[in-house]
Amino acid sequence: MKYLKSILFVSALLFVFAGHSFALDLTLFDGRLHEIKGRVQHTMNIRTHQDFRDISINSNRTMFRIEGLLDIVKQESNTLSMYGLFNYWYDSAASIDGGLKRSIRSEGGGSHGLEAFRQSNEEEEIIKELYFDYSYESWLNVRLGKQLVSWGEAAETRVADIINPLDFSNLTAFPDWEDYKIGLYMARIFISPPSMPQDISFEFLVIPFTEYDRFPPGGTGAFIGTPYNPYTADILHKRRHDYPDPSLSNTELGMRIRGLTLGTDWALSVFNTRIKTPVIRGARGAASQALWLAGGRNVGDIYEYPFYTSYAATFSRPIDMLKSTIRGEIVLNANRPYNYGGYQRVDKDVLISALTWDRNNLIPFISERMRYKAIVSSIAWYHYKMLGGNKEDGQYISWDSGTRDTTWDKISATFSTGFYYDTILPAFSFVYDLNGNTSYLYKLTVAPGDHWRYEVIFQKFNEQGIKEYGDQVILSLRYEF
Amino acid sequence: MVRIEGFLCRFVLFCCAAVLGLVTVSSAQVAKYPIASYEGAELAKVREWEKTWVGKKIDDTNLDQVKEFLPETLVALMKDKATWGDGWFTIVPYQTYPFTPGRLKYTKEGKAKLDEKGLLVDWIAGVPFPEPKDGAEVAWNFDTWNRFDQSYRYPKGYLTDGRLKYDRVVAQRTTIQQFYGRLDTEPVPAFPDNPKGILRGEFVEFTDPPEVKGQISLSIRYTEWDRPYDTWAWIPSLRRVRRLSAAQRMDTQDGTDFCNDDNGIWNGLLTRNKYKLMGRKEYLLSRHQDMSKIVHKEGECVFGGFERERVNAWVVDVEHTEPGYIYSHQVWIVDPELWKIIYADKYDKYGKLWKVQEHAHVVVKGENGVEDVDYFGSQGIDIQRRHSTNVLIPSGNSRMGYPGTTDYYTVNNLTKLGR
């Protein structure tokens, strides 16, 4: 019934907006509510391989999203406005795929897991951003409220961009970062003193209400099929339980300085934060976990989210001779806690660097036939190094690839273009992991008008260990206004 | 006595020569400006012609009677109504443009010249070469054209498929500020605090189609005439500012027919081309347009309802010297009073006609109390693919000549504006 209601709601919206030749231009609050933008999207993730769960459809989701800006005060020197971005989704995959339903029931905490899978039902999920934005003249800007923040330059992987935790429940059809970052209540202050040399400006973050990474319930395979262990539901529940309450001592703080020197945009930042996915609280935590998994109750804290400090330097500059832009960042995560491969927590400095090369490529003969629509490429190299670690005594990290080592390298690349006035938009991207994995995807988007977009995606990904690949097809239908 | 007479004679001759010399020097210091398109007998001749033609609607049925005053490419488009749509227009009387006080002052006082590299030097503001001697000087007159010192425009446009007969929409808010070469809005002729030597800054915020809504770009052009533009873009989905390479300006933008160099008919560095003055020719061009009269029909590549007046325009052939550039050459038709390209034919690298661009101009009073001119309509047609990108600025969607600030055109502000 709920799904039926959602469909009716979406249909009503389409009926209202479909007649507009230009993007939504409603006059609300005497025109003070503006910049309204939104979309209705339906995605279906179809597994084209099988594992022990016998799931055919990973996700069948309808999503509604809307954003807007409300002017509250608009004077010559002072402006105050409020911005909001809201997101709601309903996923019916468990209703139409028996294998998925059984998996979630058994691994994701029964009906509670099914309910968590079916829809966004928490404030964290529905309100992505909601903040007051105050500006005084041109040098002061203060934003108070729930916000998404993006630092750094790399796009494919987060290196310096670690402010907001992620909600992997939204990892259904290659969303934008804003779709699966969790908004945080914070004060964000920009100070841009006039006539500063090299356009230097300052940004400060004060985040008293911190959050942690969210995961879809066990049994879902995280939309790509990676199985959890049988205790997933309990572990996720315990992780939430063990996250510290908001307090002054739990406040995260960040600062960034930006400037433009000799044609190069640069930034230096420091962010004192908790890790977003917990580590086990040493030997005591390990003992508690063993007791708890054996059926014990009230065994105390198992997980912890220790603080560490991330220092970052980033830059970006065009290289006119190559008709390209180079973006780079280097990050030192100082004393970041890990306990991969064992219960013993390891606090290590990890150095991460990323270099990205962006280019709009015009290829002789081919581009002429594409009316000089460029093939846009973005190629990035990532290098991770745990300082002072060694494999022999277990001082290593289990990287995303699953490899346990002190270094890790990967290369990502994205190529996209548009045919027939951006009506047909093919894209290809891959990640080559020098430690052993390659994943890739093809995407074809058809955008025949101003509002509708149809997408087909084929994705091949690493599922259960190195070179053990799985794949899926994603169908997406989107209406934007 | 003879010696005294001889001395007097030489003295008088000397005085005459001195006076003549002073007059010559003085006239060299003050440029002849303004120069109207028609004056005296020429104007009388035009007025006589207008008695027959003003108010008449011209379409494919009577086009041949005035085709001598139209670019050949426009005649071809209008004649083939089935392919391109109904590009009818009416003829209105020739009027001079307002010459703003600032433009008059700085043009008359101007001492601009081109250096050995062909770059403009000693230019403060106004028209650098009111009496151009060659194509390069005409091009510099266009390149230094100043749009009310500060302007906000919100055009809405149509991407029209002439084969399948349907439109898509495009709209963007554009804010442009002149930092140097300012004419009528304080501070003139330049912002005093401009250590980076910015010529002009430009913000473009996309509002349509929804896919690109919220994208904002910032472009900075410098008074070092051969320095590439600096460009940044706010990408809403990334919540980030991205630096863009300004060297790559010839790839097509989104679903439109044009690249960055095509904005405003030409928006690239002048140093990339060679210019040949083809002389002057009379054309019927849209200089005083009533925007409410422009008609767009879905699926038609050309606008109807232009109001065209006779003007004795400059014609410049522009040869692109950059290897592999998308155009081989362009023909610019330049207004002799505004010094702006009004109409252009653009040829592909094989010398075949590819695109046609034309602007419709409106005289408006800015918030600085000064009347000046800007284009409020633009049609751009891809002849080879039967497709067009046409935009119009609806009434109320613009502000001109309002006070500006240098702090606005910064990356910090771009970050602030982004959501």
The CATH class of chain B is Mainly Beta
Number of domains of chain B: 1
Q: Output the number of helix runs of chain A.
A: 9
Count every beta strand of chain B, where a strand is a DSSP E run of 2 or more residues. 19
Quickly give the structural class of chain A.
Answer: alpha+beta
Please describe the topology of this protein.
The complex is a heterodimer of chains A (481) and B (419).
Chain A: H1 2-17, E1 33-47, E2 57-74, E3 78-91, H2 93-96, H3 98-107, H4 110-118, H5 123-126, E4 127-136, E5 140-147, H6 177-180, E6 184-191, E7 201-209, H7 232-241, E8 252-261, E9 264-274, E10 279-280, H8 282-293, E11 303-304, E12 307-319, E13 324-338, E14 346-361, H9 366-369, E15 375-387, E16 397-398, E17 404-405, E18 407-416, E19 424-433, E20 438-446, E21 452-462, E22 469-480
Antiparallel strand pairs in A: 1-2, 1-22, 2-3, 3-4, 4-5, 5-6, 6-7, 7-8, 8-9, 9-12, 10-11, 12-13, 13-14, 14-15, 15-18, 16-17, 18-19, 19-20, 20-21, 21-22
Chain B: H1 2-29, H2 40-53, E1 57-58, H3 72-79, H4 81-84, E2 89-91, H5 101-108, E3 113-114, E4 120-121, H6 135-143, E5 150-153, E6 156-161, E7 166-178, E8 198-208, E9 216-222, E10 230-235, E11 240-244, E12 273-285, E13 306-320, E14 327-334, E15 341-348, E16 353-365, E17 371-382, E18 387-392, E19 398-400, H7 411-417
Parallel strand pairs in B: 2-13
Antiparallel strand pairs in B: 1-2, 3-4, 5-7, 5-19, 6-7, 6-18, 7-8, 8-9, 9-10, 10-11, 12-13, 13-14, 14-15, 15-16, 16-17, 17-18
What does this entry show, briefly?
By secondary structure, chain A is α+β, with helices and mostly antiparallel strands. Chain A has nine helices and 22 strands.
Q: How does this model look, in words?
A:
The complex is a heterodimer of chains A (481) and B (419). With 481 residues, chain A is α+β, with helices and mostly antiparallel strands. Chain A has a single domain, classed as Beta Barrel (Porin), CATH 2.40.160.10. Chain A is built from nine helices and 22 strands. Chain A has helices spanning 2-17, 93-96, 98-107, 110-118, 123-126, 177-180, 232-241, 282-293, 366-369, and strands at 33-47, 57-74, 78-91, 127-136, 140-147, 184-191, 201-209, 252-261, 264-274, 279-280, 303-304, 307-319, 324-338, 346-361, 375-387, 397-398, 404-405, 407-416, 424-433, 438-446, 452-462, 469-480. In chain A, the strands form three sheets. Chain A has an 18-stranded antiparallel beta barrel. In chain A, helix 3 packs across helix 4. Chain A starts with a helix and ends with a strand. Mean pLDDT of chain B is 92; it is low at 19-28. Chain B has one domain: Lipoprotein localisation LolA/LolB/LppX (outer membrane lipoprotein receptor (LolB), chain A), CATH 2.50.20. Chain B has 419 residues and is α+β, with helices and mostly antiparallel strands. Chain B is built from seven helices and 19 strands. Chain B is 19% helix and 33% strand. Chain B has a 17-stranded mixed beta sheet that branches. In chain B, strands 3-4 form a two-stranded antiparallel sheet. The chains are: A alpha+beta (481), B alpha+beta (419). Chains A and B meet through strand 1, strand 12, strand 13 and strand 14 of A and strand 6, strand 7, strand 11 and helix 7 of B.
